[in-house]
Amino acid sequence: MVLVGDAAHVVHPLAGQGVNLGLRDVSALLDTAGRAAESGADIGAPARLARWNRRRRSDNTVSAHAFDLIDRIYSNDAPLPVMVRGHFLGIAGRVPPLNRALWRHAAGT
User: Fold this and answer.
1) Which residues form the FAD-binding domain (predicted)?
2) Which of 29, 44, 59, 108 suits a disulfide with 24, CB 3.0-4.6 Å?
3) How many other CB atoms sit within 10 Å of the CB of residue 41?
């Protein structure tokens, strides 16, 4: 049995990224199964699925922590987060490599 999307992980609904994580789960699973099928290997072998799971868990964990951090910063009325959050968005929008990296991660590429 393989769980993907919201059945496999729960993330903050911030920016609707849960759907993107689920789509990346499916894409990675199809890639894993396709490579196994091409080589004549068992696509459902426990070791193969465990590798897929570790690969996806890493991305899902990083994403979940990032969503949680963003939520904490933007839902906090303490003076420091209030001062920092506007600058963070401004910097992310004005630094092309950072902006591209954030977009690529959100898109799963």
Assistant:
1) 2-30
2) 108
3) 12
Q: How far apart are CA 94 and CA 81, in angstroms?
A: 20
| 13 secondary structure, DSSP code | -
DSSP H helices in the chain: 17-39, 46-74, 79-94, 96-107
Measured in degrees and rounded to the nearest 5, phi and psi for residue 45 equal: -60, 135
In angstroms, the CA 4 to CA 56 distance is 9
Choose among 45, 94, 5: nearest CA to 86: 94
What pLDDT, in 10s, does the model give residues 42-98?
999 999 999 999 989 888 888 888 888 888 888 888 888 888 887 877 887 888 888
